[in-house]
Amino acid sequence: MFYSFELHELKSLLKEAFKVLGFTPNIMTIYADLDQIIEDKPFNETLFFSFLDKNPTKLQVTNKIYDENGDYFRFSLTINKDYNISLLNWSNCNLDFLIKKEYFNFFLGSSFFICGYCYDINDSFFQTTEDVDYFKFNLPTQPYKTRKNYLGEPVIDVSKHWGRIERVCGLEFLAAPLMWFGLEYFKIISKEELLKFRFSSEINLLNNNIIQIKLFDIYDSPMIPENRNKQKEFWDFFKFEKKLNIYKERVMKEVPIDPSKSIQDYILRMKQKRKK
Known about the structure:
alpha+beta, two-stranded antiparallel sheet, 24% strand
């Protein structure tokens, strides 16, 4: 769930999110500045929430330290100060406790809401990765095409991977099984255009009108040809790649990025990536 960043609103959203985590938080990880990193420590609610006032980039809770055995559930808040965007992210094998409850309208109804997606994280990862060896090892029967990257090395060509995620200026864009779009998103694709898509419907809330698009059931396999074709239809109908390029050009003009800060953020992201 993506929101325009506003600290007071974010505190309220985070407080409410902890009422519907879907698991008991036992482990926490916090990234603030390069010298303020807490990784895989026992959850302390007071300490966790105190970091909201310490310029954090990511706050995360899990039911346990990650391993490949047993259920692993995660909730995180990520803040991108460059683009003033925050992300609330639930990672769970079943999300009915969240999205099928009327309480979910609280998160959709925020005036700062931009967009939200419900999708299979594993499928989206494999649809997005450009690592040839990794793709071949994990999906040995799946056909693929390659292209050359800027170094002249072969990478997976994901341009026809309709389940991929595109990350542009603080937002994620994808054809998820279930999606919601708010007022801020209408600057990227208009409400009227979204409603013309055959899988669209409108949700009328007190403070916000939301467009919902449901391509297929979130528990169905995205790899079924019928479902993959619906994802392709989404990309084609909205001329999605062109829309992303227009959005990127607009934001890059509006938001000057400090190169030195970008380097620091890159170092921090690499540290976070090594922990995943």
